[in-house]
Design brief:
9 helices; mainly alpha; 248 residues; globular
């Protein structure tokens, strides 16, 4: 047995990433790319939106379908939010969004299923969209306030969903140190570059942490201590073949 196999670093790695790694590895080994159809579809849809919105004829239709701004009515933002997740931000390289979606969405799809991945992603995205309106209602000097210029910022892309999914999967697989590092990185992002996107990432994290708390509380209430479980019902006594009937 080598020193590495018994080192504290290896024990930490197995405890922190082991269950997550084995789940992803075994699923991909068994199914290959068929394990992540939703994630592949999301990458393809984002690619299509990127190509179309860079055409002279396609920019406005994409904006009408998936562009979200704080100045828009909230009902319109709610309608556009599902597709806004797949519309790449205009000021960021599209390859970054595609890589994030393939990696984080793919891991989440394997670990928690495709519909939970979409649900958590939309919760995180909607939390950011909602925060933008709350932040604008506060003074720009407020720690959570936003300047009025953010009213017209094009608020699209998968980044809030990616951050929210990363935190949820880390919680679900007890990779608490990794989840803490994701949260710390987002806090540093806001400290270094205090903009709408960074604060929306924190709003997404807050919303997902509420989901984790609700799930944990609900799961704890459903679990019954072994000592308090009711005994199993007695099995009925069957009569022997040809013998007398058992008395109940």
């Amino acid at each position: 047995m080598t020193a590495w196999s018994t080192s504290p670093l290896r024990r930490f790695a197995r405890r922190e990433w082991g269950p997550l790694y084995w789940t992803v590895r075994d699923t991909l080994a068994a199914k290959g790319w068929r394990a992540v159809p939703m994630s592949i579809g999301a990458v393809l849809l984002t690619t299509v939106f990127q190509i179309v919105q860079n055409q002279s004829w396609g920019f406005q239709p994409v904006q009408n379908l998936g562009s979200v701004k704080a100045v828009d009515p909230f009902w319109l933002a709610l309608i556009r939010t599902p597709l806004s997740l797949f519309v790449p931000a205009l000021d960021l390289p599209v390859w970054g969004a595609l890589l994030q979606m393939l990696l984080v969405f793919g891991i989440a799809e394997i670990c928690i299923g495709w519909w939970r991945t979409l649900l958590i992603g939309y919760v995180a995205t909607l939390a950011g969209t909602t925060y933008a309106r709350i932040g604008l209602s506060l003074s720009p000097e407020h720690p959570f306030g936003l300047p009025l210029t953010d009213r017209v910022v094009n608020d699209t892309g998968p980044s809030a969903a990616v951050v929210g999914l990363a935190v949820f999967v880390c919680w679900r697989y007890r990779a608490y140190v990794t989840g803490g590092l994701v949260i710390a990185a987002m806090i540093i992002e806001v400290a270094v570059k205090n903009n709408l996107a960074g604060k929306e990432h924190l709003a997404a994290i807050a919303a997902v942490m509420v989901v984790c708390l609700v799930r944990a509380t609900w799961g704890a209430r459903r679990r019954v201590p072994p000592g308090r479980r009711p005994p199993p019902p007695p099995s009925p006594t069957l009569p022997a073949p040809g013998g007398p009937q058992a008395v109940p």
